[in-house]
Design brief:
Blueprint: H1 11-18, E1 27-31, H2 37-43, E2 48-52, E3 65-69, H3 80-93, E4 94-99
Parallel strand pairs: 1-2, 1-3, 3-4
Length: 100
């Protein structure tokens, strides 16, 4: 289940904006997007944003993107093998940057 509901951009995503990793035209996959708060916050930056979450958004676009956000996901997965599978899958989907 989702750890928190988000109404604005997370600290890691804000830092990616500051570091000029999230710039207009960039494709972004929020892997483990929860209820989609981060997606809504990023859409205002003229990014091609999609999201996927096994609980709240299982039919989301789970396809490669320039940047894959895995924000506050790994820390809530208790099973070690599941954590490893999640990291591996998210890494495989990242074309340029993997932000955890």
């Amino acid at each position: 289940m989702t750890a928190i509901g988000r109404t604005g951009m997370s600290a890691p995503a804000r830092q990616a904006v500051i570091d000029l990793q999230l710039v207009p035209g960039t494709s972004v996959l929020d892997y483990g997007c929860g209820r989609g708060g981060e997606i809504r916050a990023l859409q205002g930056l003229d990014l091609d944003v999609s999201g996927w979450d096994p609980v709240y958004f299982p039919d989301g676009r789970l396809e490669p993107a320039d940047i894959v956000l895995l924000t506050y996901v790994v820390n809530v997965i208790e099973d070690r093998a599941e954590r490893q599978r999640t990291l591996k899958r998210a890494w495989e989907l990242a074309k340029k940057v993997f932000e955890s």
